[in-house]
Amino acid sequence: MATRIRPSYELPGVSFHQGDLCDKQALLPALKDVSLVFHCASPAPASDDRGLFERVNIQGTRTVIQACIETGVQKLVLTSSASVVFEGTDIKNGREDLPYAKKPIDYYTETKILQEKLVLEACDKQKGFLTVAIRPHGIFGPRDPQLVPILVDTARRGKMKFIIGDGTNLVDFTFVENVVHGHILAAERLAPDSPICGKPYHITNDEPIRFWDFMSEVLVGLGYAAPRYHLPYTLVYGLALLLWLLALILRPLVSFKPTFTPMRVALAGTHHYYSCDRAKEDMGYKPVVSLKEGIARTVQSYPHLRQGA
Protein backbone atom coordinates (compact mmCIF):
# COMPACT_ATOMS: atom_id res chain seq x y z
CA MET A 1 0.00 0.00 0.00
CA ALA A 2 1.53 3.29 -1.03
CA THR A 3 2.10 5.75 1.79
CA ARG A 4 1.62 9.46 1.24
CA ILE A 5 3.68 11.73 3.47
CA ARG A 6 2.29 15.22 3.71
CA PRO A 7 4.93 17.99 3.46
CA SER A 8 4.09 19.20 6.99
CA TYR A 9 5.33 15.87 8.36
CA GLU A 10 8.77 16.08 6.74
CA LEU A 11 11.57 16.43 9.27
CA PRO A 12 15.27 17.30 8.90
CA GLY A 13 17.44 14.20 8.97
CA VAL A 14 14.52 11.86 8.27
CA SER A 15 14.34 9.99 4.96
CA PHE A 16 10.92 9.11 3.56
CA HIS A 17 10.43 6.13 1.26
CA GLN A 18 7.17 5.62 -0.62
CA GLY A 19 6.21 2.17 -1.82
CA ASP A 20 3.95 -0.85 -1.55
CA LEU A 21 4.15 -2.65 1.79
CA CYS A 22 3.65 -5.94 -0.03
CA ASP A 23 6.52 -5.31 -2.46
CA LYS A 24 9.64 -6.76 -0.87
CA GLN A 25 11.87 -5.20 -3.52
CA ALA A 26 10.56 -1.78 -2.49
CA LEU A 27 11.22 -2.50 1.19
CA LEU A 28 14.77 -3.82 0.86
CA PRO A 29 16.42 -0.45 -0.01
CA ALA A 30 14.52 1.27 2.81
CA LEU A 31 15.77 -1.29 5.34
CA LYS A 32 19.41 -1.23 4.27
CA ASP A 33 21.69 -0.70 7.31
CA VAL A 34 18.64 -0.52 9.60
CA SER A 35 18.76 -2.38 12.94
CA LEU A 36 15.27 -1.57 14.29
CA VAL A 37 11.85 -1.45 12.62
CA PHE A 38 8.55 -0.20 14.05
CA HIS A 39 5.73 -1.78 12.03
CA CYS A 40 2.72 0.52 12.53
CA ALA A 41 0.89 0.18 9.20
CA SER A 42 -2.77 -0.83 9.11
CA PRO A 43 -5.97 0.35 7.41
CA ALA A 44 -8.36 2.35 9.58
CA PRO A 45 -10.42 0.03 11.84
CA ALA A 46 -13.72 1.41 10.50
CA SER A 47 -13.03 0.21 6.94
CA ASP A 48 -15.14 -2.69 5.67
CA ASP A 49 -12.70 -3.67 2.91
CA ARG A 50 -11.67 -7.19 3.92
CA GLY A 51 -9.29 -7.54 0.99
CA LEU A 52 -7.42 -4.40 2.04
CA PHE A 53 -7.04 -5.65 5.62
CA GLU A 54 -5.74 -9.01 4.44
CA ARG A 55 -3.33 -7.41 2.00
CA VAL A 56 -1.85 -4.91 4.48
CA ASN A 57 -2.06 -6.68 7.84
CA ILE A 58 -1.28 -10.22 6.69
CA GLN A 59 0.48 -10.19 3.33
CA GLY A 60 2.21 -6.89 4.08
CA THR A 61 3.41 -8.11 7.47
CA ARG A 62 4.81 -11.31 5.98
CA THR A 63 6.72 -9.17 3.50
CA VAL A 64 8.02 -6.87 6.24
CA ILE A 65 9.30 -9.87 8.23
CA GLN A 66 10.99 -11.37 5.16
CA ALA A 67 12.61 -8.05 4.26
CA CYS A 68 13.80 -7.53 7.84
CA ILE A 69 15.43 -10.97 7.94
CA GLU A 70 17.07 -10.56 4.52
CA THR A 71 18.54 -7.14 5.38
CA GLY A 72 19.76 -8.14 8.83
CA VAL A 73 17.31 -6.09 10.90
CA GLN A 74 17.75 -7.15 14.53
CA LYS A 75 14.54 -5.85 16.15
CA LEU A 76 10.92 -5.62 15.00
CA VAL A 77 8.35 -3.83 17.19
CA LEU A 78 4.74 -4.29 16.05
CA THR A 79 1.89 -1.89 16.74
CA SER A 80 -0.80 -4.46 17.51
CA SER A 81 -4.08 -3.78 19.34
CA ALA A 82 -5.74 -4.79 22.58
CA SER A 83 -8.79 -5.59 20.45
CA VAL A 84 -7.20 -8.92 19.44
CA VAL A 85 -8.80 -10.44 22.57
CA PHE A 86 -12.11 -8.52 22.34
CA GLU A 87 -15.27 -10.29 21.14
CA GLY A 88 -17.82 -7.62 21.98
CA THR A 89 -18.35 -8.64 25.62
CA ASP A 90 -16.98 -7.18 28.84
CA ILE A 91 -13.24 -7.31 29.56
CA LYS A 92 -12.19 -5.91 32.93
CA ASN A 93 -8.49 -5.43 33.67
CA GLY A 94 -7.67 -7.96 30.96
CA ARG A 95 -4.18 -9.42 30.90
CA GLU A 96 -2.10 -10.56 27.96
CA ASP A 97 -2.78 -14.23 28.69
CA LEU A 98 -6.40 -13.86 27.53
CA PRO A 99 -6.96 -16.03 24.42
CA TYR A 100 -7.24 -14.42 21.02
CA ALA A 101 -10.83 -13.65 20.03
CA LYS A 102 -12.47 -16.72 18.48
CA LYS A 103 -15.19 -14.51 17.03
CA PRO A 104 -13.46 -11.23 16.06
CA ILE A 105 -15.82 -8.27 15.92
CA ASP A 106 -14.56 -6.99 12.55
CA TYR A 107 -12.02 -7.51 9.75
CA TYR A 108 -9.56 -5.24 11.53
CA THR A 109 -9.49 -7.44 14.63
CA GLU A 110 -9.45 -10.66 12.61
CA THR A 111 -6.38 -9.61 10.63
CA LYS A 112 -4.60 -7.96 13.58
CA ILE A 113 -4.74 -11.33 15.37
CA LEU A 114 -3.04 -13.04 12.44
CA GLN A 115 -0.58 -10.16 12.11
CA GLU A 116 0.44 -10.38 15.76
CA LYS A 117 0.89 -14.14 15.54
CA LEU A 118 3.14 -13.77 12.49
CA VAL A 119 5.38 -11.23 14.20
CA LEU A 120 5.67 -13.02 17.55
CA GLU A 121 6.27 -16.42 15.94
CA ALA A 122 9.07 -14.89 13.85
CA CYS A 123 11.11 -14.12 16.98
CA ASP A 124 14.32 -16.16 16.76
CA LYS A 125 17.03 -15.54 19.35
CA GLN A 126 19.40 -18.00 17.69
CA LYS A 127 19.31 -16.07 14.41
CA GLY A 128 19.38 -12.68 16.10
CA PHE A 129 15.91 -11.52 15.03
CA LEU A 130 13.86 -10.32 18.01
CA THR A 131 10.21 -9.27 17.98
CA VAL A 132 7.63 -7.85 20.38
CA ALA A 133 4.02 -6.62 20.01
CA ILE A 134 2.61 -3.49 21.65
CA ARG A 135 -1.15 -3.51 22.21
CA PRO A 136 -2.51 0.02 22.69
CA HIS A 137 -6.22 0.70 23.05
CA GLY A 138 -8.31 3.70 22.07
CA ILE A 139 -5.45 5.83 20.74
CA PHE A 140 -6.17 9.57 20.66
CA GLY A 141 -4.19 12.77 20.41
CA PRO A 142 -3.71 16.11 18.65
CA ARG A 143 -4.63 16.28 14.95
CA ASP A 144 -5.72 12.65 14.76
CA PRO A 145 -7.88 12.39 11.61
CA GLN A 146 -10.25 9.76 12.99
CA LEU A 147 -11.69 9.85 16.50
CA VAL A 148 -12.36 13.56 17.11
CA PRO A 149 -13.32 14.59 13.55
CA ILE A 150 -15.75 11.67 13.32
CA LEU A 151 -17.17 12.51 16.75
CA VAL A 152 -17.67 16.17 15.82
CA ASP A 153 -19.24 15.29 12.47
CA THR A 154 -21.68 13.02 14.29
CA ALA A 155 -22.51 15.80 16.78
CA ARG A 156 -23.05 18.35 14.01
CA ARG A 157 -25.54 16.00 12.39
CA GLY A 158 -27.45 15.80 15.67
CA LYS A 159 -26.59 12.15 16.32
CA MET A 160 -24.67 12.49 19.60
CA LYS A 161 -27.66 12.92 21.88
CA PHE A 162 -27.89 9.33 23.04
CA ILE A 163 -25.93 7.12 25.45
CA ILE A 164 -25.90 3.42 24.64
CA GLY A 165 -26.62 1.45 27.81
CA ASP A 166 -26.47 2.87 31.33
CA GLY A 167 -23.28 4.83 30.61
CA THR A 168 -21.20 3.24 33.37
CA ASN A 169 -18.99 1.03 31.19
CA LEU A 170 -15.26 1.65 31.70
CA VAL A 171 -12.89 1.82 28.74
CA ASP A 172 -9.17 2.44 28.22
CA PHE A 173 -8.09 5.37 26.07
CA THR A 174 -4.41 5.95 25.35
CA PHE A 175 -2.79 9.29 24.59
CA VAL A 176 -0.51 9.01 21.57
CA GLU A 177 2.65 10.02 23.47
CA ASN A 178 2.13 7.11 25.86
CA VAL A 179 1.82 4.77 22.88
CA VAL A 180 5.10 6.10 21.50
CA HIS A 181 6.72 5.80 24.93
CA GLY A 182 5.68 2.15 25.13
CA HIS A 183 7.15 1.42 21.70
CA ILE A 184 10.47 3.06 22.57
CA LEU A 185 10.71 1.18 25.87
CA ALA A 186 10.05 -2.09 24.05
CA ALA A 187 12.76 -1.33 21.49
CA GLU A 188 15.25 -0.47 24.23
CA ARG A 189 14.46 -3.60 26.27
CA LEU A 190 14.43 -5.99 23.32
CA ALA A 191 17.53 -8.16 23.76
CA PRO A 192 18.30 -11.92 23.66
CA ASP A 193 18.19 -12.19 27.45
CA SER A 194 15.06 -10.02 27.83
CA PRO A 195 11.72 -11.49 28.98
CA ILE A 196 9.86 -9.39 26.41
CA CYS A 197 11.05 -11.36 23.36
CA GLY A 198 8.15 -12.81 21.39
CA LYS A 199 5.49 -11.44 23.76
CA PRO A 200 2.58 -8.96 23.53
CA TYR A 201 2.22 -6.02 25.94
CA HIS A 202 -0.79 -3.85 26.76
CA ILE A 203 0.02 -0.14 26.71
CA THR A 204 -2.72 2.25 27.86
CA ASN A 205 -3.09 5.37 29.99
CA ASP A 206 -3.86 2.98 32.85
CA GLU A 207 -6.80 5.22 33.79
CA PRO A 208 -10.05 3.48 32.79
CA ILE A 209 -12.80 6.05 32.25
CA ARG A 210 -16.49 5.79 31.50
CA PHE A 211 -16.74 5.67 27.72
CA TRP A 212 -19.43 8.33 27.59
CA ASP A 213 -17.59 10.59 30.05
CA PHE A 214 -14.61 10.62 27.69
CA MET A 215 -16.83 11.44 24.72
CA SER A 216 -18.61 14.15 26.70
CA GLU A 217 -15.35 15.79 27.79
CA VAL A 218 -14.18 16.03 24.20
CA LEU A 219 -17.53 17.31 22.91
CA VAL A 220 -18.04 19.86 25.68
CA GLY A 221 -14.43 21.00 25.29
CA LEU A 222 -15.22 21.85 21.67
CA GLY A 223 -18.50 23.57 22.53
CA TYR A 224 -21.00 20.80 21.78
CA ALA A 225 -23.64 19.35 24.07
CA ALA A 226 -22.89 16.08 25.84
CA PRO A 227 -25.15 13.09 25.10
CA ARG A 228 -27.78 12.60 27.82
CA TYR A 229 -30.58 10.30 26.65
CA HIS A 230 -30.18 6.59 27.33
CA LEU A 231 -31.00 3.77 24.92
CA PRO A 232 -31.00 0.07 25.94
CA TYR A 233 -27.81 -1.64 24.81
CA THR A 234 -29.53 -4.81 23.58
CA LEU A 235 -31.97 -2.79 21.47
CA VAL A 236 -29.26 -0.72 19.78
CA TYR A 237 -27.02 -3.74 19.22
CA GLY A 238 -29.89 -5.69 17.68
CA LEU A 239 -30.75 -2.84 15.31
CA ALA A 240 -27.09 -2.42 14.35
CA LEU A 241 -26.79 -6.13 13.62
CA LEU A 242 -29.94 -6.03 11.48
CA LEU A 243 -28.68 -3.04 9.48
CA TRP A 244 -25.26 -4.64 9.04
CA LEU A 245 -26.81 -7.83 7.67
CA LEU A 246 -29.06 -5.78 5.40
CA ALA A 247 -26.03 -3.90 4.06
CA LEU A 248 -24.30 -7.20 3.28
CA ILE A 249 -27.34 -8.52 1.43
CA LEU A 250 -27.82 -5.32 -0.59
CA ARG A 251 -24.12 -4.70 -1.27
CA PRO A 252 -24.23 -6.02 -4.87
CA LEU A 253 -27.07 -3.63 -5.67
CA VAL A 254 -26.78 -0.64 -3.32
CA SER A 255 -23.87 1.05 -1.54
CA PHE A 256 -25.25 1.24 1.99
CA LYS A 257 -23.01 1.80 5.03
CA PRO A 258 -24.77 1.98 8.42
CA THR A 259 -23.40 4.59 10.84
CA PHE A 260 -23.60 2.26 13.83
CA THR A 261 -22.17 -1.17 13.19
CA PRO A 262 -22.34 -3.97 15.79
CA MET A 263 -18.63 -3.37 16.42
CA ARG A 264 -19.13 0.31 17.20
CA VAL A 265 -22.08 -0.44 19.47
CA ALA A 266 -20.04 -3.04 21.37
CA LEU A 267 -17.13 -0.62 21.75
CA ALA A 268 -19.49 2.06 23.08
CA GLY A 269 -21.56 -0.10 25.43
CA THR A 270 -19.27 -2.66 27.09
CA HIS A 271 -16.42 -2.63 29.60
CA HIS A 272 -13.05 -3.10 27.94
CA TYR A 273 -9.97 -2.03 29.84
CA TYR A 274 -6.65 -3.78 30.25
CA SER A 275 -3.89 -4.39 32.78
CA CYS A 276 -0.48 -2.82 32.09
CA ASP A 277 1.20 -4.80 34.91
CA ARG A 278 3.32 -6.89 32.53
CA ALA A 279 4.62 -3.75 30.79
CA LYS A 280 5.38 -2.16 34.14
CA GLU A 281 7.26 -5.22 35.37
CA ASP A 282 9.20 -6.08 32.21
CA MET A 283 9.75 -2.65 30.64
CA GLY A 284 9.31 -0.16 33.47
CA TYR A 285 6.34 1.36 31.65
CA LYS A 286 4.55 4.32 33.19
CA PRO A 287 2.34 6.77 31.27
CA VAL A 288 4.11 10.07 30.62
CA VAL A 289 0.92 12.08 29.96
CA SER A 290 -2.21 11.85 32.12
CA LEU A 291 -5.64 11.30 30.62
CA LYS A 292 -6.77 14.77 31.74
CA GLU A 293 -3.80 16.49 30.10
CA GLY A 294 -4.11 14.33 27.00
CA ILE A 295 -7.77 15.28 26.51
CA ALA A 296 -7.00 18.98 27.02
CA ARG A 297 -4.13 18.94 24.51
CA THR A 298 -6.22 17.02 22.02
CA VAL A 299 -9.17 19.42 22.23
CA GLN A 300 -6.85 22.44 21.86
CA SER A 301 -5.50 21.05 18.58
CA TYR A 302 -8.89 21.30 16.81
CA PRO A 303 -9.85 25.02 16.79
CA HIS A 304 -11.42 24.54 13.34
CA LEU A 305 -13.80 21.90 14.74
CA ARG A 306 -15.20 24.04 17.55
CA GLN A 307 -18.89 24.82 17.61
CA GLY A 308 -19.47 27.82 15.37
CA ALA A 309 -16.03 27.69 13.73
From TrEMBL:
Residue span, 3-beta hydroxysteroid dehydrogenase/isomerase domain: 15-228
Keywords associated with the record: Membrane, Oxidoreductase, Transmembrane, Transmembrane helix
Recorded GO MF terms: oxidoreductase activity, acting on the CH-OH group of donors, NAD or NADP as acceptor
Entry annotated with the keyword tRNA processing: no
Pfam families: 3Beta_HSD
The keyword Iron belongs to this UniProt entry's keyword annotation: no
Bilayer-spanning residue ranges: 235-254
Gene Ontology terms: biological process: steroid biosynthetic process
Record-given protein name: Sterol-4-alpha-carboxylate 3-dehydrogenase, decarboxylating
Organism this protein belongs to: Scomber scombrus (Atlantic mackerel)
Lineage, broadest ranks: Eukaryota, Metazoa, Chordata, Craniata, Vertebrata
